[in-house]
Amino acid sequence: MHGGLAMRQWLRVAGLMGGIVAAPACGRGKPATEPGPVPSEVGIEVENQSPASWTVYLVTGSVRQRLGQVNAQGLLAITQPWADWTRGGSVVYLRAEAIGSDERIVSENLHVQPGQVVRWILTPNLRMSRIVLY
Fold this sequence. Notes:
Layout: H1 2-26, E1 41-48, E2 54-60, E3 63-70, E4 75-81, H2 82-86, E5 92-98, E6 104-106, E7 117-122, E8 130-133
Parallel strand pairs: 1-7
Antiparallel strand pairs: 1-4, 2-3, 2-5, 5-6, 7-8
């Protein structure tokens, strides 16, 4: 009977030790090396500081896609699927055409990654317009 009591105590201690050893493993999340979801969109913001209203396009290679319209002193903010930035070729830029005029402006070529935001600031003097990626 004495051996049975010792065995039960040993099993109880072993069970407690197993719980202590296993407890930290239960609270673990994903390993730090596991990558998160890959961004699949690009943000586009067009800030219009000029007195004209503009129609804005995304141009990839020879494919031109209308993104929307930005009114005078307005802001156009949209997201665009990453696939739209890669389907027409390696040359990618933005183009804006003034509404009611033949005036237009073209951005420099853009090298954008998924998850980034493109901010195009159209100034009254279009040559002073600038583009920022972040």
